[in-house]
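can u do me a favor
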């Protein structure tokens, strides 16, 4: 039968542990003071991610940086996705499995149609789709409103890995090819 320990035995064990520690540390010297300054960055606040939702406020869509080439061709690549993926998308590696034509729609209607289309494409396990936004030639002031908005909307959609301007035979500057995650 194990013997009960009393308080004096426990105190004695603690004293032995402390003595052993001091003996082991007797030759240890403190490190010299460093002249380096430690910069502590404030951690960003955690915000819940909204799965597969397009932003309601267009100011959010302006925060995404799109790569715009010298010839006006634009593209997007989600962080962590290789440049090779974007190159393959441009070269037609994945067949287009769905199309959405947004010609003539208002921004609000286009945004809703886009959200529904992308949700359906993801559920159908489409890998590559084409969004036709038009060149904006008939827009007020000749400004392609949908073309400016579509990039930000797509970049905010979690299932979109990359997109780029379509080849001329696929719509050119009036359309984008979109790569969705598997």
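np, heres the sequence
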């Amino acid at each position: 039968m194990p013997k009960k320990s009393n308080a004096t035995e426990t105190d004695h064990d603690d004293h032995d542990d402390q003595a052993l520690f001091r003996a082991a540390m007797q030759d240890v010297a403190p490190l010299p003071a460093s002249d380096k300054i430690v910069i502590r960055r404030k951690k960003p606040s955690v915000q819940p991610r909204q799965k597969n939702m397009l932003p309601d406020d267009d100011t959010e869509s302006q925060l995404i940086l799109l790569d715009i080439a010298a010839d006006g061709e634009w593209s997007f690549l989600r962080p962590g996705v290789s440049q090779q993926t974007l190159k393959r998308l441009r070269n037609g590696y994945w067949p287009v499995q769905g199309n959405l034509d947004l010609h003539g729609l208002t921004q609000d209607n286009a945004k809703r149609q886009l959200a529904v289309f992308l949700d359906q494409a993801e559920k159908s396990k489409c890998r590559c789709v084409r969004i036709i936004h038009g060149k904006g030639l008939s827009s007020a002031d000749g400004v392609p409103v949908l073309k400016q908005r579509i990039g930000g909307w797509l970049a905010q959609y979690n299932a979109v890995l990359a997109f780029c301007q379509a080849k001329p035979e696929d719509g050119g500057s009036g359309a984008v090819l979109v790569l969705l995650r598997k």
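Residues 50-65 have pLDDT under 50 and may be disordered. hope that helps!!
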